[in-house]
Amino acid sequence: MDQRTDQAAIGETGSIIDLGLPAAGGAFDEHHPPDAALIGDCVHCGFCLPTCPTYVLWGEEMDSPRGRIYLMKEGLEGEAMSDEMVSHWDACLGCMSCVTACPSGVQYDTLIEQTRAQVERRHERSASDRALRSLIFSIFPHPRRLRLLRGPLRAMQRTGLDRAVRRTGLLERMAPQLAAMESLAPRLGKPERLPERVPATGQRRAVVGMLTGCVQGAFFPGVNAATARVLQAEGCDVVVPRGQGCCGALSVHNGREAEAQRYARGIVDTFEAAGVDRVVVNAAGCGSTMKDYARLLADDPAYADRAKALAEKVKDVSEVLDELGPVAVRHPLEMTVAYHDACHLAHAQGVRAQPRRLLDAIPGLELREIAEAELCCGSAGIYNILKPEPARELGDRKAANIVATGAQVLVTANPGCLMQVTSAIERSGHPMGMAHTVEVLDASLRGLPADSLVRPPVATA
Ligand code: SF4
Ligand code: SF4
Questions:
Q1: What angle do CA 302, 38, 3 make, to 5 degrees?
Q2: 409 in helix, strand or coil?
Q3: Hey, whose CA ends up nearest to atom 8 of ligand 1?
Q4: Per the database record, which ranges form the 4Fe-4S ferredoxin-type domain (predicted)?
Q5: What is the CATH code of the structural domain delimited by 31-122?
Q6: For residue 104, which ligand has an atom nearest its CA?
Q7: If one looks up domain 330-454 in CATH, what number appears?
């Protein structure tokens, strides 16, 4: 008798799902199916519905957190994994807004991660979907390959070839997902290489390791340089380990469990060897994944304890700066700023107050709040490439809310949000400055003029 049949016999007084095991022939196998106890926490109250971007867009129950949890329950109880079921899970942005909104503490983040890993193992995707995902995952989690792309991309931007291709609309018609990828590419500046150790200014208060990230490192090297300068000015020795790879965030958010675990082990090895008090992250999606390494590597006896120890050291840069408190002088920046909460910072890590406090403490800076702040901008890792239409709708909605604040600069703490919102703001025809939180702090510490941030990025559309 196999374990499942055995358990079914034991469970005559209840269903297999009561025992946490998936029914035979159903959507899931026994390797971490969506947790039945967590599914049971959902009391169907619907408080999460107005904060779920896909429910807001389409008003469909099965495209709400409650509906997706219901489908997980059906799958556990014996319903086979169908294309339709998968389409509703695929449409989820993984924004975790529902986790914040849920009064019953339903851990939808864990549930969707477990479900996605099952989908990737057990569902046959179409050839075109497989090809697109292979392309994405052969580029994005590879810092060196991304850096190699910089040259051709910069050449296209400098010659205006990118705009010319966009104007023809050909790519949009033939391959909307590739067109989405192209339109999101940020305006590339000069590469800035950081030394392996940046010594603290004045008395040393901490030794921190810094994750440089894949997209952050290749497309936003200025953000990494600003992060190192601000930490240095606030009394941190900043260690930037060479050869650090991807943290696994994109893989884990897309159900590529084994790949994510491989990347996570690499990061554990790298930062353990760096001997640092804290690991500072300036990309929200990376930070939330690294804080969850204990769960990701829980089944690996060689790494479980080490992953837990590392995860406890991981902090968003705004958390570290807020905890340390300021020692460096803030110079005035006379400007208005709208702060956009990146979902993986606000909903997944609960970091909302710290970046606002840091910005508020800059003399002359006026902070403005954005309406519908809890709604995702549509970036969501690679969602805006896989699902360009809803992502664009959400981006346009976010851009309208941002423009309505009348602020001069949009500030956020995630490269994905910066690319998505920059592209939507350009479409809105109301150009404005765009910056990461640490770039604003850096400008204040260095006494740069507000104009350096207020200037919109050069239009690419
Ligand atoms: S996930 Fe939470 S908020 Fe949404 S229906 Fe279930 S219990 Fe209610
Ligand atoms: S993670 Fe976001 S998109 Fe997915 S169900 Fe929750 S609120 Fe909706």
A1: 65
A2: strand
A3: 45
A4: 32-62, 83-106
A5: 1.10.1060.10
A6: 1
A7: 3.40.50.11810
